[in-house]
FAD-binding dehydrogenase (Arthrobacter alpinus), 557 residues
Amino acid sequence: MESDEVGTQFHADVVVVGAGLSGLVCAAEAYNAGRSVLILDQEPEASLGGQAHWSFGGLFLVDSPEQRRLGVKDSAELALGDWMGSAAFDRPEDFWARQWAESYVNFAAGEKRSWLHALGVRFFPLVQWAERGGYDAQGHGNSVPRFHVVWGTGPGILEPFLAKVAEGVAAGRIQLAFRHRATELMLDGGAVTGVRGQVLAPSRSPRGVASSREVVGDFTVSGAAVIVTSGGIGANHDMVRQQWPGHKSPKFMLTGVPASVDGDFQQAVASAGGNLVNTDRMWHYPEGIHNPDPVWPNHGIRILSGPSPLWLDATGHRLPVPLFPGFDSLGTLRHLGTTGHDHSWFVLNQTIINKEFALSGSEQNPDLTGRDVKLLAKRALPGATGPVQNFLHHGVDFLQAVTAQELGTKMNALVGEDLIDPQGLFETLAARDRQVHSGLGKDTQLNAIREARRFATDKLIRVVPPHAMMAPEHGPLIAVRLSTLTRKSLGGLQTDLAGRVLNSDGVPVAGLYAAGEAAGFGGGGLHGYRSLEGTFLGGCLFSGRTAGRQAASDTAG
């Protein structure tokens, strides 16, 4: 429903603040348990499902049938070791986050896939290998491929929960209140008893497009339980900069989430006693490019690259080992923050872009999103995918040239400063190509490429054989300017293993729960400092299921 009434009042057993994936899961679980549910969201109905709709639909699974069919040997023990090596928990505030991490890994190795399969979710059979790490056995990264793409991408994950909510609406037990912006929690004796907020003017903004904040009224909601699923802060660059470690954020950033991801309600929950922790831990990407067909302001897209492009800083120097494409997102972002420049470069050629470039997001993968087998089969044909070709020819960040010297000159022209030595760029590529010709070589990146091709998915669809990058038959040469792309909060409201929000003394705030990104995907930051990827949607599912079931249990009778 959308409303322009002043002083609107509601009541429900369970009130869910936010209609993204975690909110829908909470609502579905509470409805399944027999509770009445009200879902509040500041956006119009067109944006139901939130960020998940735009996602590539990757889920972290452990020892799955898809992995086993590809010869991947995984286990809960190996996955937990990878998780802890990546998270690097080191704060008192990590007590609950660590327990959430252990629970989530067990979920990913156990019930997660069968639960989703029973709901109708299916997976693309070729598992992907994200965040490969490249350090020692106890450091960051996935030891094996675990990134399972949902058949239908983000919309495919949303489907069963949208259907369950629609069932609840038809049964009269779930209400959807769009354009209702929660601003304050109501308290009685320290217990949360409901929500106050503003009714916003009706809006016809399409999904993801910024909607107005014109206030036309107010509302109150009373409920026995309030679950906060209001998301993160990725579109609020002021807040991102305030929370950036050391406050030394890039001067320029692209935005990887709709404008509605503003983080405002997290502060309202903190004001009501909820413990907001680890806010300086965030997950932004260094491989952002401008979307030539933007939906929201400053809209960026992430390149999902195979390991072959050379990654250069703004002055043309290769990044240190193991900061190759797809190995360590946060490590790369931190290193680039020391260079004094806001951009970096991928340098590659046509052969590499044809096979190794993919773009994150449901709209950039119409074959997987639309479950179009004929369109998917075209990925096996020569040439880049249609969306990648579109960026190559129309994206402002993409340059092509016949020679390295010409490419370096174009790179300087694009940024308006002579930061690249064109002859130096040629010498960098020539040195790399000599390593290819040697047949063995000492170049760690080339050795990583050879190692990646031992895995069936990479050899088949993701990684080209090592070759001379400047060889004419593989041309033209291509440079892609990369910028920081804001995306996820890794910190959030601290919760216990039941999804109950805790105060600063570690005591649950009566009647208050949180899930999804607002809760740091559980416990106030179950990822610690780094993500293994495929864990954001999965974190929404797991924390949403947990909080929804607990809120329903606590409001029984």
